[in-house]
Specification:
CATH topology of one domain: GMP Synthetase, Chain A, domain 3
Largest sheet: 8 strands, mixed
Number of helices: 20
Low-confidence stretches: none
Bound molecules: 5'-O-[(S)-ethoxy(hydroxy)phosphoryl]adenosine
Helix content: 25-40%
Strand order of the largest sheet: 14-13-10-8-9-16-17-25
Radius of gyration: 24 Å
Shape: globular
Number of strands: 32
Distance between the termini: 49 Å
Length: 643
């Protein structure tokens, strides 16, 4: 890497070999973004070519209108790379959590047959195009097979993170009205077996789920599976006698491909709708260009399939590019803190894509642990999910990338389907704590409250202008109002509002400041204060509560909870914790819970979380004249100090 001032550029050698290395691509794409995406789309296999690239009826829009496609045909038999060329190449290398267990390698051809068998199995169960299928699986190959099998037959998958609680699963299954759920008996996490089937059984109560397909992951090692006769079916039994070819469903470009839920501002999560054509184009080319994917690469995105990064870069992106990628079942620091380092060396990983929270955790273990690693195979590093601060950026760049790998900090959202802001590895520049430039063909601006463009260095709201990106969400499942209110209200129907605060430097590089709504990013996972609050106030003895996100050294942000209860309740904190576990899952557990007698409010009754944040971090409170009850401030201060 070459350093010029505070900017880093790829070495001449890296640049020469990179797929995209000429900055003129930005100008070219800017001149006609629709044509730019259409030219890329032409590289894919379409059953029928689209009639119009982009159609805009604000706030609705379509991409590749009239085109017919199936993502699995583009991964397998009609892969533009030539299926014969990649057939017997490893598609995915699965590393189980238990060290003593053997990895599983699936070639593209093997994966193809597995996908077809399950696709036929799903058809036998009556699943048809457009039907929703819930997937509640750990990081095992069957999770990818399940997603692809749905895509093969045009069923809409709704993947639910396996560490989500039964309640979180149930809410999503109810919203999608899925008739089939694919789950597993259990999985390994930090040496323990988690009884996933039990959670699945609870989560399918009061839903429309008629059939539960169960993958045998743990062979009854920890828990005998409770079997619901007539409802449950082993994955193995469903697939073993199926034909290994299933005709791909011909999907319209704008047919729903999948639904992925993300936390909503109230208790109810939002089902982001993604469509077949646009998502496929964006997933393929963002993965190819941003990670410079070449045929001999070994790509590892550590994201769980339950999140959007898992969908696009731990599954579809690498597969569309015929790449070999790693799938890891466990936690990166189990059973040894450098398990992740062992995996990079073991498989010769060339691209490592992870979240700042993991980087900070590795950093905390100290560099001594890394002395034995040279990481010679690594060529590109990536970061995603939350802002990466300068110290973590530099540590990652030096200690893991050995000062030679471009570090692509990638900004995007569940809503955008794929990465939208980052610098390309063969072009740069890379600047610590700045995500970079909009991807070619994408138009971002930073606006102030009045809708005027911010000056260099000025904070404002990050927004995207038409024609947006092909993979942008098309709606919130069964909630058109939410779609309008969340994304198309702040600046009108032609401007996509990201809910992120940002600024630009003089080079046009964008720095993300963080969310300006009530989303908090706990270890990169998206939760809202609203959903936590509504989970907590379901406890009948809690009359009111407020949740804030406070900075955390490792996890980025972490919730802190303030509660008001009717009377003194024994073990109230334990009850709040178990309630969050039950309603959401362990990812959202708070750092502290404070019992208070009142919460700071405006005269119109709005809780001032901003004041709570300042009280917690012991910052000056500023003007309190808008508070209806300023006396609470002193009381809360005392509670915080006393605890
Ligand atoms: C944040 C994750 C800073 C941002 C792909 C966004 C980031 C939210 C970055 C979406 C980054 C994501 N730098 N912040 N590189 N990437 N974010 O839906 O606040 O889980 O709006 O998608 O994460 O989170 P989501």
């Amino acid at each position: 890497m070459i350093k010029k001032g505070n900017l880093y550029y790829p070495s001449k050698d890296f640049q020469k070999k990179a797929i995209i290395n000429n900055p003129s691509i930005y100008k070219k794409a800017e001149r006609n973004p629709v044509k730019f995406w259409e030219d890329l789309a032409k590289e894919l296999f379409w059953f029928k070519k689209w009639k119009k690239g982009f159609v805009h009826n604000p706030p609705y829009f379509e991409w590749f209108k009239g085109g017919k496609i199936n993502i699995t045909s583009n991964i397998f038999e009609n892969n533009p790379l030539g299926f014969d060329k990649i057939k017997n190449k490893a598609a995915l290398i699965w590393e189980p959590e238990p060290i003593e267990e053997r990895p599983r390698i699936l070639t593209y051809y093997e994966l193809f047959r597995e996908v077809n068998r399950l696709a036929n199995g799903l058809k036998d169960l009556g699943v048809k195009k457009g039907d929703r299928v819930g997937i509640y699986l750990p990081m095992i190959p069957e999770a990818i097979i399940s997603m692809l099998a749905c895509a093969r037959i045009g069923a809409v998958h709704a993947v639910v993170f396996s560490a989500f609680s039964p309640h979180a699963l149930q809410v999503r299954l109810q919203d999608t009205q899925a008739k089939v759920l694919i789950t597993a008996d259990g999985y390994y996490r930090r040496g323990k077996i988690i009884d996933l089937k039990k959670n699945a059984d609870r989560g399918t109560k009061n839903t429309k789920v008629k059939k539960v397909i169960v993958v045998n992951r743990t062979d009854d090692k920890a828990y005998p599976v409770k079997w619901n006769k007539g409802k449950d079916i082993w994955y193995e039994d469903l697939t073993k006698n199926q034909k290994d070819y299933c005709k791909p469903e011909i999907m319209d470009s704008e047919d729903i491909f999948f639904i992925l839920y993300t936390s909503g501002s109230t208790g109810k999560p939002k089902g982001c709708i993604h469509t077949c054509g646009g998502y496929t184009v964006q997933a393929k080319f963002t993965a190819k260009w941003i990670f410079d994917l070449k045929q001999d690469d070994i790509f590892w995105s550590t994201a769980d399939l339950g999140w959007v990064t898992g969908h696009t870069y731990s599954c579809y992106g690498p597969l569309l590019n015929g790449t070999t990628f790693i799938m890891f079942e466990g936690a990166p620091n189990w059973p040894v803190p450098d398990r992740w380092g062992q995996i990079i060396e073991k498989y010769g990983v060339t691209t490592f894509y992870t979240a700042p929270t993991a980087i900070r955790m590795f950093q905390k273990y100290g560099t001594d642990l890394l002395k034995k690693y040279k990481f010679e195979t690594l060529q590109i590093l990536g970061s995603v999910g939350e802002p990466i601060d300068e110290a973590a950026w530099k540590w990652y760049f030096k200690e893991i990338g050995k000062n030679k790998c471009p570090l692509v900090d990638t900004w995007w959202q569940t809503e955008t389907g794929g990465i939208l802001i980052t610098c390309l590895p063969g072009i740069g520049p890379f600047k610590p704590s700045f995500t970079g430039l909009p991807f070619p063909g994408i138009k971002f601006e930073i606006l102030n409250k009045k809708g005027e463009k911010c000056k260099t260095g000025e904070h404002g709201n990050l927004i995207m202008l038409p024609p947006f990106c092909p993979g942008l969400l098309r709606g919130v499942y069964k909630n058109p109002k939410k779609y309008l209110d969340t994304y198309w209200k702040e600046y009108g129907k032609e401007i996509y509002f990201t809910s992120d605060g940002a600024l630009k430097d003089k080079n046009g590089l964008i720095r993300i400041i963080g969310r300006i709504d009530d989303v908090i990013k706990v270890a990169g996972h998206r939760v809202t204060t609203g959903e936590l609050e509504s989970a907590i106030t379901k406890l009948h003895f809690i009359t009111e509560c407020a949740v804030i996100g406070i900075p955390d050294e490792i996890r980025g942000e972490i919730p802190v909870v303030f509660i008001i209860s009717k009377n003194k309740i024994k073990d109230i904190e334990k009850q709040v914790i178990s309630q969050i576990r039950k309603e959401i899952g362990p990812i959202a557990l708070p750092k502290k819970i404070y019992s208070v007698s009142d919460l700071p409010k405006t005269r119109s009754g709005k809780i001032m979380r901003r004041i709570l944040k300042k009280l917690f971090s012991k910052e000056p409170l500023g003007d309190l004249s808008t508070l209806a009850n300023p006396e609470t401030v002193e009381q809360i201060k005392k509670v915080i100090i006393d605890k």
